[in-house]
C-alpha cells in the first residue's frame, strides 16, 4: 500500500482536516500548509504533497460536491465545472513551486561537480604533461613515468565517474524543468486561479468547511464571463 493511501492516525487526520478547512477558504496550498502547522520553510513543497494524499483529495471532493449541490441556479451551475479547472491550476502551480526548489538544489550540485571536473581536468593535464616530458627509455625514470601514467588513469576514472553523476543530475533537472513555468505563464495561472476561485466563492457563498450558504444572485465583475469551457481549459493548460 502506498504511503498516500494509508489511513492517517487521529493526530494526522486532525492536521489534514485543518489543512482542508483552510485550503477551502482561499485555495492556497502553501498558506493552508502553514496554518495546519507545517514548517514555513517547506510549505510550498509540502502543500503540493498534501494535495496528492488520498484522504485530503477525497475530503476536498466532498466539500466541492457540497458546494455544487447548492448551485441550483443554472447560471451558477455553469461555474461548478470551473472548480476542477481551478484545482488543476493550483496543482500545476504547486508542481512549479516544487520544481523551482529542486532545480535550485540540483544547480548547486551541478555547480559543485563542474568545479570538481575543472580542477580534475587541470590536474590530469599537468600529470600528462610531466609524464610526456620524461624519457621512459631511461631506466631510472621509467618507474616514475609509469607511476605518473597510473595516477593519470586513476584521475581519468574519477572524471568518468563525475561525468556520470553530472549526466544523472542533468537528467533529473530536465524532468523538473517540465513543470517549471516561465514568469509570464506563472502569473497568468495565478490570475486565472484567483479569478475562478473568487467567483466561485462569491457566487456559492462558501464561508467555511461546515457552513456553505447560497445567498442568491451576486453581481461580480467576472473577467471570465462569456468564455466557453474549452477556452477556459486552454487558459488553464497554457499555450
Automatic annotation (TrEMBL):
Residues 57-179 form a coiled coil. One of its GO terms (biological process) is chromosome organization. InterPro entries: SPP1-like_terminase (IPR052404), Terminase_Gp1_N_sf (IPR038713), Terminase_ssu (IPR005335). Keywords: Coiled coil, Viral genome packaging, Viral release from host cell. Pfam families: Terminase_2 (PF03592). The keyword Coiled coil applies. PANTHER family: TERMINASE SMALL SUBUNIT, TERMINASE SMALL SUBUNIT-RELATED. This is Terminase. It comes from Enterococcus plantarum.
